[in-house]
Amino acid sequence: MENNSNENPYLTRLKNMKNINSWLMEQRGKKAVEALKKNAFEAVYVNDTKTARTEILKLIPKDAKVGVGGSMTMRQLGVLDELEKMGTLIYDHWKPGLSPEDVLNIRKAHLTCDVFLASANAVTLEGMLVNTDGIGNRAGAMMFGPNRMIIVAGVNKIVNDLQSAFRRIKEIATPRVVKDMGIDLPCATTGFCMDCNSPMRACRATVILERRPFLSDIHVLIVGEDLGF
Ligand code: SF4
Q1: Beta carbon of 170 within 6 Å of any ligand 1 atom
Q2: From the CA atom positions of the chain, what is the Rg in Å?
Q3: Taking the CB of residue 159, how many other CB atoms lie within 10 A of it?
Q4: Which residue segments constitute the domains of the chain, with CATH numbers given?
Q5: What is the number of the ligand 1 atom nearest to the C-alpha of 169?
C-alpha cells in the first residue's frame, strides 16, 4: 500500500502490518480448508463471525435438536442466541441452574442429537481435526452419533501438523480453558503444562479426525478471526 498522504510512514506501516497479518491468516485458513476437503470433510473459509453465523444457521434443519459442546467459539458467534430465538431445542450443559444429573443427561444427549456444534482445539494444515477432552462427550460426538457435526475454528487454531496440534492443546488451549473455568490445576497457576497427575487433570481423551469417518456428515468452517481458546 502506498502512502500518498503526509501521514507518518511508520504509521502507514503499522496499518499495513494489520493487513499483512490478516492476509497471512487467510492464506493459512484457505490452505487448511483445501486439505480438509481432500480428507472428505465439507469445509469452507469465511472472513468473519457474522458470515460464519449465517452459514451455520443454514446448515441446521428446522426442528433439529441441537447439541453444543463446551465451546467459547460457538458462543462468540452468537449462534445459540439465534437458535433460542427460533425456539430450537438446545442441549447446552453450560446453562446455569442445572443439576449434576441434568448436566450428565445433556452430555449423553450430545451423542444422539440431530446437529452437534463444537469448535476444534487444533486444525492442521494437513486437514486433520484434533480435540482433547476431560470427559469425552465432545470427542465422542465427533467420531459417531449426531446426524450432522458443525465444527468452527478461528484461524488461531490452525497449526502445521499433529505434533504442533498436541503442543497447542497443552501449551495454549488447556491452560486458558482451565484458567477460565477456575479449575485448580498446575497449568492454571503457572501457565505451563506440567503433564500433571492431578485428580482434576483436564487432558484425558484425545480424538484425531484424520479423514471424515464413514457415515458421518461433518462441516468445518474456518473463520478469519481469532476465536475461542
Ligand atoms: S496435563 Fe495437566 S497441567 Fe498439562 S495442560 Fe493438561 S491439565 Fe494442564
Answers
A1: yes
A2: 19
A3: 24
A4: 9-223 (3.40.50.10420)
A5: 5
Q: Verify whether ligand 1 is closer than 6 Å to residue 173 (CB atom).
A: no
CA-170 nearest atom, ligand 1: 5
| CA gap 36, 126 in Å, rounded | 7
Distance 70 CA to ligand 1 centre (A): 17
| Residue 194 CB–ligand 1 contact under 6 Å | yes
Q: Tell me which residue has its CA closest to atom 6 in ligand 1.
A: 203
Query: Measuring CA to CA, how many Å separate 117 from each of 5, 72, 126, 147?
Result: 47, 11, 22, 11
Q: What is the mean pLDDT of each run of 10 residues along the chain (229 residues)?
A: 70 88 95 98 97 98 95 94 96 95 96 96 98 94 95 98 98 96 96 97 97 97 96
pTM of whole model > 0.85?
yes
pLDDT for 15 equals: 85
